[in-house]
């Protein structure tokens, strides 16, 4: 499985550090072990130099010369004497030898005094090996402590080196879907400059394609609106004439189709305008005031179907945003709520401030939306798995574009309970401090 670049880099450097530490530790251990053995030979030579001027006449080993190293001095006399082991030692030439004494391997230094008496300075091989091993092991402690420190420093350096890439990823994640502005290359590492250049070139091509698509929608909508308007006028003129019932029925179908087409074109134009124009900077709109206006406009339509349309809460709150765009948001949402609420139902609005945000809450008593469709609400031309009415599926898409451009969020959730069902829409926009 492909691992991340940081993971592969850290794994490679870790392997190099561990391998270098193992090789260096092995060489350091062998060198320290050899030096410890030579040092113990030097101890035997120093003790022998002292014993040259001090005759020790006991035939048994004299221990306690160096209790930690367990070095012993044995007098061998001027001629072979005593046990067979002493006689074997007496027969050795002056110098360092590996021998067996009292059944144990030992390092032996034999020397002869001016009076021809001889002696041996010895140390058991087991003790020498233990001392040399302990000394060599101590030399490994700095290396053993250094390896984890190097691994920690390596991890920190790698994390710091990849920080510009993480910031770039965060920048891309935080962008809106329609934000194709160029990435900032100032201050970025030279290694990232070609990568940033390629991404910016791709974003430039995407921006050109999106602009071309927007122009096509706007131009097509403008071109189609004129003939449809003319056809609508002709249909209205025909409606005033006397005609058979069957012909009038077909004319009504034609007029209804042209009305839907005109509504679709208006929404396409509105969508194109929202894609091309950013909200006016610094324009403050009183949300409660425009909400009251939208409700007043839609009251006749709601009353005709015996729908209770009104407010549950209205607080004075203002937001930064174009007034016409925010009116479009409220009108689309309230119209949808009224449209999908059955006769005798209710549509409740709430305008209030919460945690520094202006909140628009619209709740109807309809059937709600299928759970599988909730995440797709707001996609262009999406009307749900059970569409009804003559909408084209663009109204909520326009609402979502406007809310996104104002720096807000929109949430759709079904109302479930024993006494009420329906859909709740919650829009949050940054409130102006007042």
Describe the protein.
With 434 residues, this protein is α+β, with helices and mostly antiparallel strands. The protein folds into 3 domains: 5-157, no CATH class; 190-276, Signal transduction histidine kinase, dimerisation/phosphotransfer (DHp) domain (Helix Hairpins, Orthogonal Bundle); 284-430, Histidine kinase-like ATPase, C-terminal domain (Heat Shock Protein 90, 2-Layer Sandwich). The chain is 53% helix and 19% strand. The protein is built from 9 helices and 12 strands. The protein has helices at residues 5-51, 84-90, 125-161, 163-174, 193-239, 245-276, 287-304, 323-339, 395-405, and strands at residues 62-66, 71-77, 95-101, 104-112, 118-124, 284-286, 308-314, 318-320, 346-354, 357-364, 409-415, 422-430. The strands form 3 sheets. A 5-stranded antiparallel beta sheet has the order 1-2-5-4-3. A hairpin with a 2-residue loop joins strand 3 (95-101) and strand 4 (104-112). Helix 5 runs antiparallel to helix 6. The chain starts with a helix and ends with a strand. 20% of the residues are buried.
């Amino acid at each position: 499985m492909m691992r991340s670049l940081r993971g592969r880099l850290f794994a490679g450097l870790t392997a190099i550090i561990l391998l270098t530490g193992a090789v260096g530790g092995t060489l350091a251990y062998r060198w320290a072990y050899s030096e410890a053995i030579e040092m113990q030979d030097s101890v035997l030579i120093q003790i022998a130099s002292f014993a040259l001027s001090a005759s020790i006449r006991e035939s048994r080993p004299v221990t306690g010369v160096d209790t930690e190293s367990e070095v012993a001095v044995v007098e061998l006399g001027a001629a072979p004497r005593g046990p067979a082991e002493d006689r074997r030692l007496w027969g050795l030439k002056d110098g360092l030898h590996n021998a067996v004494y009292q059944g144990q391997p030992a390092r032996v230094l034999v020397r002869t005094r001016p009076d021809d008496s001889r002696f041996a300075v010895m140390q058991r091989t087991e003790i020498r090996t233990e001392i040399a091993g302990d000394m060599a092991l101590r030399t490994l402690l700095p290396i053993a402590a250094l390896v984890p420190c190097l691994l920690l420093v390596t991890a920190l350096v790698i994390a710091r080196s990849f920080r510009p890439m993480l910031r770039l990823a965060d920048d891309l994640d935080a962008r809106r879907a329609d934000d194709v502005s160029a990435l900032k290359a100032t201050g970025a590492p030279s290694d990232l400059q070609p990568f940033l250049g390629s991404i910016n070139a791709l974003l430039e091509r995407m921006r050109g394609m999106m602009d071309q698509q927007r122009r096509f929608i706007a131009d097509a909508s403008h071109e189609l609106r004129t003939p449809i308007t003319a056809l609508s006028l002709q249909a209205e003129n025909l409606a005033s004439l006397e005609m058979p019932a069957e012909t009038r029925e077909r004319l009504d179908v034609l007029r209804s189709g042209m009305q839907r087409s005109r509504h679709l074109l208006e929404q396409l134009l509105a969508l194109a305008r929202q894609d091309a124009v950013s909200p006016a900077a610094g324009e403050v709109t009183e949300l409660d005031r425009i909400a009251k206006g939208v409700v007043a406009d839609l009251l006749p339509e709601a009353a005709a179907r015996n729908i209770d349309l009104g407010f549950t809460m209205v607080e004075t709150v203002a937001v930064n945003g174009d007034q016409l765009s925010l009116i479009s948001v409220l009108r689309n949402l309230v119209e949808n709520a009224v449209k999908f609420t059955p006769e005798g139902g209710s549509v409740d609005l709430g305008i209030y401030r919460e945690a520094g945000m202006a909140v628009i809450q619209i709740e109807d008593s309809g059937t709600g939306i299928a759970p599988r469709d909730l995440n797709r609400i707001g996609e262009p031309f999406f009307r749900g798995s059970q569409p009804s009415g003559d909408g084209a599926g663009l109204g909520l898409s326009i609402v979502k574009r406007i809310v996104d451009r104002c720096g807000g969020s929109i949430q759709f959730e079904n109302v479930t309970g024993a006494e009420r069902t329906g859909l709740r829409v919650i829009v949050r926009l940054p409130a102006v401090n007042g």
